[in-house]
Amino acid sequence: MDYLKKKEEIKNVVVLTLPGGGIIVADIIVQKLRKVTNDNFEIIILRKLVTSYNKENAFGAVMEDGTIFL
After folding, report:
1. Distance CA 13, CA 33 (A)
2. Are 15 and 23 in contact (CB under 8 A)?
3. How is the chain split into domains, by residue range?
4. 44 closest CA partner among 69, 70, 10
5. Which of 7, 51, 53, 63 has the fewest CB atoms within 10 Å, counting from its CB?
6. pTM of this prediction?
7. Euclidean distance between CA atoms 7 and 38, whole angstroms
8. What is the C-alpha separation between 47 and 19, in angstroms, rounded?
9. pLDDT in tens for each of the 70 residues of the chain?
10. How far is C-alpha 41 from the chain's CA centre?
């Protein structure tokens, strides 16, 4: 991991992932990043807003605090 050698160059890392296996992969990435940064690993739970005609077609999300993103 030569690109992660300089700790002072890595700040405010955000790892985005999708549920259904993605959190496990993100955790592995964060564990590797913790060797060079002290950023926290936080999980944000959201619910996908889907269209009535296609459950895979999302038009937004509702966050756990009720915030809606379209």
Report:
1. 9
2. no
3. 1-39, 46-70
4. 69
5. 53
6. 0.48
7. 9
8. 10
9. 555 555 556 666 777 777 667 778 888 888 877 766 666 667 777 788 899 898 888 899 888 888 998 9
10. 9
Q: Which two tokens stand for residue 49?
A: 């807003």
CA–CA separation, 4 and 32 (whole Å): 9
DSSP 6-53: -GGG--S------TTTHHHHHHHHHHHHTTT---------EEEEE-SS
- Residue 39 is which amino acid? D
Task: Please identify which residue in the block is written with the tokens 């050698």.
Answer: 5
